[in-house]
Design goal:
Largest sheet: 8 strands, mixed
Number of helices: 3
CATH topology: 2,3-Dihydroxybiphenyl 1,2-Dioxygenase, domain 1
Strand order of the largest sheet: 2-3-4-1-5-8-7-6
Number of domains: 1
Distance between the termini: 15 Å
Helix content: 10-25%
CATH superfamily: 2,3-Dihydroxybiphenyl 1,2-Dioxygenase, domain 1
Shape: globular
Bound molecules: zinc ion
Number of strands: 8
Length: 134
């Protein structure tokens, strides 16, 4: 079941610059940075009370974030929902006709299992499922 927002992912050209912007915006100096190989991104995570903000910078030219920046420019890239059991949610969505980018979960930031649902089946919004830490 989808009940909570996990995070909002924002595509950025330059992670250092964006970290400074969001430090000031949120008035928070605490953040976590990580390179996520499966998504070809460097990211920074700002943890808020009920959800996180994830800033995403491409590491390679064939990174999905690079493609997004080239087509649309900086901005909201995806919305991530927290789920208890990602495999059963993927199964449910597939059975309901949603187009999945990841039929099987992949490793995301902070060792969490994630999977993306294609924006063509969700009104143009890239949706990520993120399995809640047990
Ligand atoms: Zn994400």
């Amino acid at each position: 079941m989808i009940k909570n927002l996990s995070h909002i992912g924002i595509a950025v050209e330059n992670l250092e610059n964006s970290i400074n912007i969001f430090k000031n915006l949120l008035n928070q100096s605490d953040y976590h940075t990580e390179k996520v190989e499966s998504q070809k991104v460097n990211l920074a995570i700002f943890k808020l009370q009920n959800f996180n903000l994830e800033l995403l910078e491409p590491t390679l030219d064939d990174s999905p974030i690079k493609k997004f920046l080239d087509n649309k420019g900086e901005g909201i890239h995806h919305i991530s929902f927290e789920v208890e059991d990602i495999k059963s949610e993927l199964e449910r969505l597939k059975n309901n006709g949603f187009k999945l980018i990841n039929e099987q979960p992949v490793m995301g930031a902070e060792g969490k299992l994630i999977a993306f649902v294609h924006p063509k089946s969700t009104n143009g919004v890239l949706i990520e499922l993120s399995q809640k830490e047990k």
